[in-house]
Amino acid sequence: MESFNWKETAEVEWDSRADFWHERSRNMWETGSRKTILPFIQRHVKKGSNILDVGCGDGYGSYLLNKAGYGVTGVDLSVEMITHAKRTAIQHEIVFQKADVNDLPFPTNSFDALMAINVLEWTENPFHALKEMIRVTKEGGYLCVGILGPTAGPRVNSFPRLYGENAICNTMMPWELKKLAMQENLQHIEDIGVYKKEVKPTEVEHMPLDLKQALSFMWVYLFKKAGTT
């Protein structure tokens, strides 16, 4: 049986999607599913903070963070994504480099905050990836982590696992991410849900949390890394 190299397979897959992603990322960040993320971060992370954007894709989210007054470093597994991102960085003070979330090339306690949107569910071992993200975040720093909700179309990428086949998408529920974070002593600060346009805010605002999350397209958490006492 041929061995499965998750990293190599994921890198090839995301390289092939880079142009497609680049065509759509601006709309996602400005008017689509990611439009609430920057304001969410700004409520908690002070201007001037140094933020690591993990899984930065074509760098548009990094660009918006930098434009809002943050120092930004962006990393992505895909060299094609980083190629797009570096074009974005030409007129801005943003550092982009190819790197794997499972082995981030930064010292412990390097960043004031970290953003990882739709990253953990695309890792071979989400728990290990989360621990690595925590490692590079300073004590007292923030981690903004978003994962796809149950109604998100990209979850079809995890379907082959039902046949015992390999898949680069590792299905994860919002409540599972929170449990992982709590086990690593992260403090839950706030969370927000993102829904498809067919779901009206008035329809979910009075629902229990588990039902809200069950209807979500994406769920975004803000955690705080405990400082020394």
TrEMBL record:
Q: Which stretches make up the Methyltransferase type domain?
A: 52-144
Biological processes per GO annotation: methylation; sterol biosynthetic process
- A single Pfam family it belongs to is Methyltransf_11
The record's annotation in SUPFAM superfamilies points to: S-adenosyl-L-methionine-dependent methyltransferases
Single GO MF annotation: sterol 24-C-methyltransferase activity
- Keyword Lipid biosynthesis among record annotations: no
- Organism annotation: Oceanobacillus picturae
* InterPro entries referenced in this protein's UniProt entry, alphabetically: Erg6_SMT_methyltransf, Methyltransf_11, SAM-dependent_MTases_sf
In terms of superkingdom, the source organism counts as Bacteria
What's the protein name? Demethylrebeccamycin-D-glucose O-methyltransferase
UniProtKB keywords: Transferase
User: Which CDD domains does the protein's record reference?
Assistant: AdoMet_MTases
